[in-house]
Amino acid sequence: MSEPKVIAQRGLYFEELATGVLYQHKPGRTMTETDNVLFTTMTMNTQALHLDAAWSATQPFGQRLMNSMFTLATMVGQSVGQLTQGTIVAQLGMSEITFPHPLFHGDTLYTETVVTQKRLSSSRPGQGIVTMVHTGRNQDGVVVGTASRTALFWLTPTA
């Protein structure tokens, strides 16, 4: 009996990423109260807008908000399976991070990514630098977060 063909799940190598393409990451992730309280307390963020339901009810949004760092981390995380799983060398930085609308308990986050720039690394043979913009939307299509992210990617391995 012959060995089965092996297909490993991975992200995209530098050459496979195309600028201007919209990569949609599925499935979405529904945010829970547990997610918010656990992440907020694990990161020692004592902001009442995440933890105190009674006080938050008196604030402009009338309820607790999802921790924006959890929103950002989930946006990046949703892109991993499709773009960076096993093909990223390192994250180099993030910029232009915005949260134009809050995310609440029970909302579902959907993320998409557009590669805006890419170039070969001048100092690291076999690697390239990619800049991408992640956009997170809630279940109604409202943008809840954006972030520009630069990462170092592997080029396709040679045999």
Automatic annotation (TrEMBL):
Residues 23-135 form the MaoC-like domain. It comes from the Bacteria. SUPFAM superfamilies: Thioesterase/thiol ester dehydrase-isomerase. Belongs to the enoyl-CoA hydratase/isomerase family. This is Dehydratase. It comes from Arthrobacter alpinus.
